[in-house]
Design brief:
The structure is a homodimer. By secondary structure, chain A is an all-alpha fold. Chain A is built from 16 helices and 2 strands. In chain A, strands 1-2 form a two-stranded antiparallel ribbon. Chains A and B meet through helix 2, helix 4, helix 6, helix 8 and helix 9 of A and helix 2, helix 4, helix 6, helix 8 and helix 9 of B.
C-alpha cells in the first residue's frame, strides 16, 4: 500500500557513515512526481541546506557501541535529523524568530512561501515517524525496538521536550531569567532531541537501563555545553566567524548564562559538563573515542 | 523515563465509546505543571473545542469488527484525533486560511498567540505518536501491530496524505481546477486521515489484506462524500445552518465539483460513493450497521 524503502545492499558497507546518512535521507525524500511536488522540493531544500548531521552521527555511534544494525541506525538517525530540520523551518517563520537566512541561504519560507514552509515542517515530522516505522526499519531491529525508539523520539521532540523548550524560550525572549530557567530551556530546546538521537541508537541495539541512562546523561551534558558555548561565542566571536549576527542576545536583552555569570564561570560550567559527558561513557564496552572527541570538540568550537 | 498511561480499569467497560474517547484524550493531555503550561493549555483548548470525534469513532468501529481490544482502539483513535486537531490549528493560522473562528470559538492563535498555536500543533502531532506507541498501547495490541498502525498514521497524515492535499488545495485556492484535481484534493486533504482512522482500527485487530483494502475503500468513499456534501451545502445552506460563512467557495472563485458539474450531478456522485462505501463493508463478518448508517448520515447531513 505504501512503504519507504532504502535500497541498502552489500555495497552499503563500503559507504562511510556520512555517505550512508546522505543515502538514507535521499531515499526518505524520494517520491513519485505529483501535483504537490513543491512540498517535497521545500522539504528537500531544508534537509539539504548544509546541516552537519550531528544527530544521526550520534545515533550511529551509540548503535555501534550496542552492535546494532548499521543501516537501521542510519534510518533511525535520519528520523531524528528530519525532526531537527522541521524545527528549524518552523523556528525561522515570521511568527517565531522571523529569520530570513539560515546557514547562509534564504530560509525555507523565503525560498518558498510561508504556507509551504509551515506544511513542509509538518510533513517532515510525519516523515520521520514514517521512515523509522517502515517495514525495512522494523525488519532490521524488530517491532519492539522500533516502536520504543519511535516513542522516545515522539516524547523528546514534543511538548515535554523540544517544543516545550521553544515555548519557554519565547516566553523569556526579551526579559531576564534565572540560571535555572536558562538551563531548563537548554535541556528541552536543544538537549532533548540530542538525547533522543543517543537513546535511539541504544534502544535499537537493545540496551539495558544502565546504558540508556548513561546515553541520556552524555546527551544532556553535550547539549548544555553546546548552548553555553553558543552564548559565549555570541559575545566573543565576530558575525563573520559565526556565520550569523553576533551579539544578538545582548541586543534582544536575552538572559544567558554568560550575561548572568560571566564568560569565565560559564566556560567552567561547560568544562564540568564535558567531563561528566565523557565519564558517562564508561559503562559502554566498545570504542567511545569518537563520542569523547565530539564532546571536547563542542567545548572548543569557534563557530 | 517517560510514559503516558491511560488508567483503564475494569470499570472502563461501563463507559460508552464517546466517554472512553474523552477519557483517553484527557489522559493524553495530562501533564505535570511546568513553565510551559501555556503550551498544554493551548493544545487542550483545541482538542476540547467541540470536535465530533468522527475519526476515533471510526477506529473503534473497525476495531470492533476485528475484535481488537477496545481500550487500545480508543488510544489509537485518539492518536488520529490529535493529528486532526493539529491540522485544524495550523489551517487557521494567518499564513494559511487566516480564520479567526473555529466551531464558534476563537481560533487557537486568537485565543493564545500565533507562535503558541504553531507549536501546539507541532506538539499535538508528536503526542499522537507518543500515545499510540506508549507501553500501554504496545502491551494491548503487540509491538508489530502498534508499529504498523503508527506507520499508517505517519504516511496518511504526511506529504503523501493530508499535508500533500493541503498544498494542492492552497495552489488552487483562487483559481479554477478540474474534476480530477478536486477529487485528488479531497482524497488527500480529507479522506487520507479518515483512511488512517479506519485502517488503524483494522491493523490493531490483525486484519488481512482483503479487510484492509475494504476499510480503505470505505474511508475513501465517505471522505469524498463528506467533501462533496460540504461543497453543496456551501451553495444551498445559510451561514446560520452551517455555523460558518456560506458561499465562501464562490466568493474565493474556488472550483468545486458543484461549480463544475452542478448540484444534481454532484449529489449523484456522492450517492454513488455512499453505495460503494456500504458495499465495501460486506467482507466484514460482524455488525456493520453503525458504519452503514454513518455513511448515509454524511450523505444526508444539513450542516
Amino acid at each position: 500500500m505504501y512503504n519507504k524503502t532504502f535500497g541498502f545492499s552489500s555495497s552499503s558497507i563500503m559507504l562511510t557513515d556520512e555517505e550512508l546518512i546522505e543515502h538514507t535521507l535521499n531515499k526518505a525524500l524520494a517520491h513519485k512526481s505529483d501535483l504537490y511536488d513543491v512540498l517535497w522540493d521545500s522539504m528537500e531544500y531544508s534537509v539539504k541546506a548544509g546541516g552537519k548531521r550531528v544527530r544521526p552521527m550520534l545515533t550511529m555511534e551509540f548503535a555501534k557501541l550496542l552492535k546494532a544494525d548499521r543501516s537501521a541506525a542510519a534510518i533511525f538517525g535520519c528520523g531524528v535529523e528530519l525532526i531537527h530540520t522541521y524545527s528549524l523551518i518552523h523556528d525561522d517563520l515570521p511568527c517565531m524568530d522571523n529569520d530570513d537566512m539560515r546557514r547562509g541561504k534564504p530560509s525555507n519560507h523565503i525560498a518558498f512561501s510561508e504556507d509551504t514552509a509551515l506544511l513542509a515542517g509538518d510533513a517532515l515530522q510525519s516523515l520521520a515517524f514514517e521512515i523509522i516505522l517502515s517495514d525495512e526499519a522494523i525488519s532490521l531491529v524488530g517491532a519492539e525496538n522500533a516502536a520504543k525508539a519511535a516513542a522516545a523520539l515522539a516524547h523528546f521532540c514534543g511538548a515535554d521536550g523540544m517544543v516545550g523548550g521553544q515555548v519557554i524560550d519565547l516566553m523569556y525572549e526579551d526579559k531576564s531569567s534565572t540560571e535555572e530557567v536558562i538551563t531548563k530551556i537548554h535541556l528541552l530546546k536543544t538537549a532533548a532531541l540530542i538525547k533522543a538521537a543517543c537513546l535511539i541508537g541504544c534502544i535499537i541495539g537493545g540496551a539495558d537501563d544502565e546504558k540508556l541512562k548513561a546515553a541520556a546523561k552524555y546527551a544532556e551534558c553535550i547539549g548544555l555545553t553546546f548552548q553555553i558555548i553558543d552564548d559565549i561565542l555570541d559575545v566573543t566571536a565576530t558575525s563573520e566567524e559565526l556565520g550569523k549576527p553576533a551579539g544578538s542576545d545582548a541586543e534582544n536583552s536575552k538572559s544567558t548564562l554568560v550575561s548572568l555569570l560571566g564568560i569565565e564561570k560559564s566556560r567552567e560550567i561547560a568544562e564540568k559538563y564535558t567531563k561528566e559527558a565523557i565519564s558517562a561513557l564508561s559503562v559502554f564496552d566498545g570504542d567511545t573515542e569518537f563520542l569523547e572527541n565530539f564532546a571536547v570538540k563542542l567545548l572548543n568550537r569557534r563557530n
